[in-house]
Design a protein that fits this description.
This protein is an alpha/beta fold. 48% of the residues lie in helices and 23% in strands. The chain has a three-stranded parallel sheet with strand order 4-3-5, sandwiched between helices. Strands 1-2 form a two-stranded antiparallel sheet. A hairpin with a 2-residue loop joins strand 1 (3-7) and strand 2.
Length: 113
């Protein structure tokens, strides 16, 4: 299987091995480009978690994970490694600032700002 590309003065022809490699690379690029992003919502208020989740899912670009407390959020963040975290500031037991500090202490969950 040869792969040929021609556009104006630009021409490219790849042999069978090159064509297979190119198809694999293009497939990976397209998969990454169209993959949904994962977001973790950490909030003690169930209604807020559910409403936020619905809004993000309607957008169709987010896989939503949720946690009802800072402690649960730390575990979920470490095991699931989401692309983004939406963190409530005022929560009982462990507030959002403490949760954020603990996320920053762990190299797996460290958030780059």
């Amino acid at each position: 299987m040869d792969l040929c590309y021609k556009s104006g003065d630009l021409q490219y022809q790849a042999g069978e091995n090159e064509a297979k490699k190119l198809v694999i690379i293009l497939t990976i690029v397209l998969m990454v480009q169209y993959m949904t992003k994962r977001i973790l919502i950490i909030d003690d208020d169930r209604d807020i978690r559910e409403a936020t989740q619905m809004c993000l899912e309607i957008l169709g670009e987010w896989e939503v994970l949720s946690a009802a407390s800072g402690k649960e959020g730390l575990v979920t963040a470490a095991t699931e490694q989401p692309d983004a975290i939406l963190l409530d500031v005022m929560m009982p037991e462990m507030d959002g600032l403490t949760t954020f500090e603990k996320l920053q202490e762990n190299p797996i969950t460290k958030i780059f700002l």
